[in-house]
Write a structure and sequence with these properties.
Elements: H1 3-10, E1 22-30, H2 36-46, E2 50-62, E3 65-71, H3 74-87, E4 90-95, H4 101-113, E5 118-120, H5 135-145, E6 150-151, H6 155-162, H7 169-181, E7 187-189, E8 204-211, E9 214-221, H8 231-244, H9 249-265, H10 281-306, E10 319-322, E11 332-335, E12 339-342, E13 345-348, E14 352-354, H11 359-368, E15 376-381, H12 384-392, E16 397-400, H13 407-410, H14 415-427, E17 434-437, E18 446-451, H15 454-467
Parallel strand pairs: 1-2, 1-4, 4-5, 5-6, 16-17
Antiparallel strand pairs: 2-3, 7-8, 8-9, 10-11, 10-15, 11-14, 12-13, 15-18, 17-18
Helix pairs in contact: 2-8, 3-4, 4-5, 6-7, 8-9, 10-15, 11-14
Enzyme class: transferase
Protein name: Bifunctional hydroxymethylpyrimidine kinase/phosphomethylpyrimidine kinase
GO cellular component, one term: cytosol
């Protein structure tokens, strides 16, 4: 018998338990997995929190709609809450579909006794506009709201609760203040259900957080997709999970809203309906960060080995890689200090880190609005020699002229790259390989090369170098 076999028969591995905060969801089950308890538990786990549940109703549904609903007795709902609270150190809870007045009463009573914050998602109105509760249950919600650390109604739900028609920021504030008057510690009136008739900018979603300390508006671009089923559940679950981790309410709301925005933008194409919110998108994004950074390092090594100094602009070259779910420059890896020319070739000034690029990263993120498969970009020199080389290649080349940039765009910080990308993509069919920025006074002319993967980017830049 080998030494290893002897050890396997006589020794056992020592357990290494992991401690996590615990959160509770009290909501209905969604067999389609996009909303309700299933969405809540996936979201809670995505925030590194242990999820527990009390099911209020069982629904037979999918991405196209609800087939049937079976409501559990209120006593069974209360028994589930009591069982969880008796055994687990619950740090935060959230409520979703409560179905009946009796369940609302039972949950409100448990919330009043709870020593942890409760986030109330008042699931009252379906996306279709249909009311999900009878009048008696809606009236009972005032008792639950009075126990809420945060209540998160959409525009329709806020109108039911407060009789305030929410059409934009000012009316959302009025509804939020009415909810605080009912006893809630804070209210987040979400703007995803508002149309472009709202007081906000067209194409912008505004969530309004109202607290006794003041009002804050969270703005984000509207994502043109119908795959938003369960986004309200996901938001309230994300906030509850962050509260369980010890974040302050404003921090939890901000991180929760950002999480949902990414989950909706990069939704899952499942089912025959619009699809599902991507509850694991944050985990997948974090997992992609180091491979993305290493891919950028490989491209930089290729440029150093081939001596790409002929393509390095006066301001330096950068190589940028975006994670598959990138939303902002902090989700892009780039060379800190850029790549510069030396007497013996080119050299990166420092290492690769996330958030190291501003100019090229913003351009790449703007290009992803037109082609989400684009993940890598590099800025190269542009002059007559580069222009001749581009003409010799069988590439789709777009360009934009900063001289045509509207003054209103110039006045907005960071808007030039978005404007330039739009002009470039509108000028060619499909996705260009390179985009020429003609520059202006004080702004060097550039050639930006884009690609869907790192190898493709390196090959395209080195092909351009060879063509010179």
């Amino acid at each position: 018998m080998s030494h290893e076999d002897a050890l396997s028969q006589t020794d056992t591995r020592r357990p290494a338990p992991v401690e996590k905060p615990v959160a509770l969801t009290v909501a209905g089950s969604d067999s389609g997995g996009g909303a309700g308890v299933q969405a809540d538990l996936k979201t809670i786990e995505a925030h590194d929190v242990f999820g527990t549940s009390a099911v209020t109703a069982v629904t037979a549904q999918h991405t196209r709609g609800v087939e049937s609903t079976h409501i559990l007795p209120a006593a069974e709902v209360a028994a589930q809450i009591d069982a969880v609270a008796d055994d687990f150190d619950v740090r935060a809870a959230k409520t979703g579909m409560l179905a009946t007045a009796e369940i609302v009463d039972r949950v409100a009573g448990r919330a009043a006794d709870a020593e942890f914050p409760v986030v109330v998602d008042p699931v009252m109105v379906a996306t279709s506009g249909d009311r999900l509760l009878d009048a008696a249950a809606e009236e009972r919600y005032e008792d639950l709201i009075a126990e809420a650390a945060l209540v998160t109604p959409n525009a329709d739900e806020a109108a039911v609760l407060t009789d305030v028609t929410v059409e934009g920021r000012e009316s959302a504030i009025a509804a939020g203040e009415a909810l605080l008057a009912m006893g809630a510690d804070a209210a987040l009136v979400t703007g995803g259900h508002l149309s472009d008739r709202s007081e906000g900018q067209a194409g912008t979603v505004e969530d309004v957080l109202v607290t006794p300390d003041g009002t804050r508006t969270l703005e984000r671009p509207r994502v043109e997709t119908a795959a938003t089923h369960g986004s309200g559940c996901t938001l309230s679950a994300a906030v509850a999970a962050r509260l369980a981790r010890g974040e302050s309410l404003p921090e939890a709301v901000e991180t929760g809203a950002a999480f949902v925005a990414r989950a909706v933008r990069y939704h899952l194409d499942v089912g025959e309906g619009p699809g599902a919110v991507h509850h694991a998108v944050g985990i997948r994004d974090r997992a992609a960060r180091e491979p993305t950074a290493e891919a950028v390092r490989e491209v930089v090594r290729a440029f150093v080995e081939r001596d790409a100094s002929a393509l390095v602009p006066e301001v330096g070259m950068n190589v940028v890689g975006a994670t598959p779910y990138a939303e902002e420059t902090g989700d892009t890896a780039a060379v800190e200090g850029r790549i510069t020319r030396t007497l013996s070739g080119v050299k990166p000034n420092r290492g690769v880190r996330f958030g190291a690029s501003s100019h090229v990263a913003r351009f790449l993120l703007s290009c992803r609005e037109f082609d989400p498969d684009l993940r890598f970009a590099a800025n190269c020199r542009f002059d007559a020699d580069v222009a001749d080389a581009l003409d010799s290649l069988d590439w789709s080349v777009a360009e934009y002229d900063r001289g045509a940039e509207p003054e209103g765009v110039k006045a907005q910080e960071g808007s030039t790259m978005q404007w330039g990308a739009r002009r470039a993509f509108e000028s060619v069919a499909g996705t260009p390989v390179a985009v020429v920025d003609r520059g202006e006074v004080g702004k060097e002319s550039m050639t930006k090369v884009v690609a869907s993967d790192a190898d493709e980017l390196a090959e395209r830049v080195l092909t351009l170098l060879s063509a010179m």
